[in-house]
């Protein structure tokens, strides 16, 4: 039996952030991680393909809390990120394409090729999206989050569809679709569905690069964030255990006082923080018999059917896009590459999945960090990281090997319509469908955010950092402000533990 002031169950970046902040306040902290590596969905894999470093799950960064970066001096622990520019590249089958980035003049030239009237509309969209993102960011650290603190206009935009948001400002189909994808990522909804406005704003909330809504890469891959947080926690005295699968909490009366691992080790602590998914925390580790009706109801209603598939490919050369030919490095290779020609395509991708279990033609969002961080692959080689929707967790009949292979083949074939060299230059592949995300990272239903980020599951409707059971706190993405690599759930949980300790 080991005794600590605080136990953190799970080493996702939020668990690590909580552990570092609690250690910083002088608490003796242990982190218990079920898998053999630290970081949860914020991880870099170095052992899969020789010479490659893969950001296996999350890939790009924006929402990481600037306060946390400073407070824990994460740069001194190896965190270094740089902005992605250009931001997006959307090729079309007719040979045209759209490249957008930080340069307003270049954006105007790109948009003018489709419709000069959309230059002003794009600027207006950007103003609205960044204003919404900024409004959210201001509330991300709230200890008592309340959606009704936003004024009616903001609430209407967040509760509405992402299609309504983009159609209000621009009319070029490929521009509409490119902008709408931020409202769909990780979410089992189509662009015309209510609530996707919130998902878009969430993706404009980040300030990690000092520019509202800008996204970028982390040098060394996303795992560098977890490693920096781990290092900051350990420097302050925290202990981390991998292969420590917690199977249940220890209870003393109606108080959680510790945790037991699968191999029988017992850890006791004054505060237990769970970084695991709320379903894991309450149903598996605590037991529903200890829950009040409100929490039972919230769990029963919790939407956590993930629609995402991740396909990482090692490529022998850069993709050669028919719309911007060439295999030597060009600006569009550094951007997020979208397969999203128009809003109807995106809605169809969603609707097909509801009807048949997967998209006929999926929405794709692809990233390559290797052009700007060659240390991640052997010389001349690249990693193409593909995030595809919709391949939902609840597919009738599940995801057997044949269906998984067929899904990967479908995605590669679809990309090949835009960049025909891709199938011939694939040297290795890593495929994760929803069930793999659940098995590997503990993401129930394969949901990348620990549950939908939609009205009904945001702000006060997400799970609280203080659970209804004394001694038990939640510090993962199931709490406000939810998923993405931000650290806010971990920060808020640590603050709750420290406040309660002072009061105790
Ligand atoms: C494929 C994919 C792509 C994504 N892309 C991006 C992106 O580009 N940018 C972005 O910002 N976000 C992205 N996200 C979302 C983001 O990665 C997650 O929202 C975030 O990493 C969740 O962090 P967390 O600390 O809350 O939980 P997690 O990272 O899920 O960590 C929870 C940890 O708890 C551990 N655990 C669970 N049960 C137990 C137990 N019983 N005992 C011990 N340990 C346990 C798990 O093993 C895991 O390590 C992506 C996610 C996925 C899956």
Structural class: alpha/beta
Low-confidence stretches: none
Strand content: 15-25%
What is the fourth-level CATH superfamily of the domain at 2-44 and 64-79 and 219-301 and 450-503?
FAD/NAD(P)-binding domain
Give the overall form.
globular
Give me the count of strands.
18
Query: What is Rg?
Result: 22 Å
State the end-to-end distance.
24 Å
Q: Predict the CATH topology of the domain at 2-44 and 64-79 and 219-301 and 450-503.
A: FAD/NAD(P)-binding domain
Quickly count the helices.
Answer: 15
Give me a quick take on this structure:
The protein has 15 helices and 18 strands. It has helices spanning 13-24, 66-71, 104-112, 117-137, 152-159, 162-167, 173-180, 196-203, 223-235, 278-286, 293-301, 343-356, 401-416, 434-441, 488-503, and strands at 2-9, 29-32, 44-45, 54-55, 81-83, 88-91, 97-100, 216-218, 239-241, 246-252, 255-261, 266-274, 308-315, 336-339, 363-367, 382-389, 426-432, 472-474.
